TrEMBL record:
<dbReference type="InterPro" id="IPR057678">
    <property type="entry name" value="DUF7918"/>
</dbReference>
<protein>
    <recommendedName>
        <fullName>DUF7918 domain-containing protein</fullName>
    </recommendedName>
</protein>
<dbReference type="Pfam" id="PF25534">
    <property type="entry name" value="DUF7918"/>
</dbReference>
<feature type="domain" description="DUF7918">
    <location>
        <begin position="11"/>
        <end position="211"/>
    </location>
</feature>
Length: 212
């Protein structure tokens, strides 16, 4: 688990939170950040949780995996919405009105081809990040989730050139698509208050053998 005051985030596999190692914290450009290392296991499904124990401000969370935006969710302040939850779980991306795909750790394959240069940001590869943004809320409507097909992220099987030294490491890919009805959610109209995240939590994941 990573924690900044009443705010926290963690990654869960098989119902248990993964231990976070070598935790570091910093403050830059009005963003308080914390990061640490977790062990990943190929073929395992995982979930990302984040929590605000006091719910003192409206927050929009953005979840990035390997540099790809995979989920956005608003947690409303307790002053106006006292019965809303203080913890959010993210374990999938919706792919249509009635389907979704879960997140899985997977092994990166490498090839001996120096001319193969995929569009991968190696600074964000192997990292799960939760950014929390302060939000000015204009309106909240309780209704079925509105699916936007233009915003489907892509977490697919990765093949990287051998020169990247990524052989044996992991990345995240989607599992098989399955049926799921649209939930009833708070559809929020609002604007971000800041030009940088309020809080940032980053989990750098590697196979257990590499971490040791």
């Amino acid at each position: 688990m990573l924690r900044i005051g009443p705010y926290s985030a963690w990654v869960v596999v098989d119902g248990a939170g993964l231990e976070t190692h070598c935790v570091e914290s910093s403050h830059h450009n009005r963003t308080t950040s914390t990061s640490g290392w977790i062990s990943s296991e190929a073929g395992k499904k995982f979930s990302v949780y984040w929590s605000n124990a006091v719910r003192d401000v409206d927050l929009e969370a953005t979840v990035f995996i390997d540099g790809v935006e995979c989920n956005r969710h608003v947690m409303l302040a307790a002053s106006d919405f006292p019965h809303r939850p203080d913890t959010v779980r993210v374990s999938y991306t919706r792919t249509s009105d009635f389907t979704r795909r879960d997140f899985f750790f997977s092994v990166v394959q490498v090839i001996d081809d120096n001319e193969y240069l995929p569009s991968v940001d190696y600074n964000k590869f192997g990292v799960i990040t939760v950014e929390l943004w302060r939000l000015r809320v204009n309106r909240v409507v309780r209704q079925q989730l509105q699916y936007d097909p233009s915003k489907i992220p892509m977490l697919e099987f990765q093949v990287l050139p051998e020169q990247t030294k990524k052989g044996g490491t992991h990345h995240v890919r989607f599992g098989k698509e399955y049926s799921a009805s649209r939930p009833i959610v708070d559809m929020v109209d609002g604007q971000k208050l800041d030009k940088a995240p309020y809080m940032s939590f980053s989990f750098k994941y590697r196979p257990r053998g590499l971490l040791e």
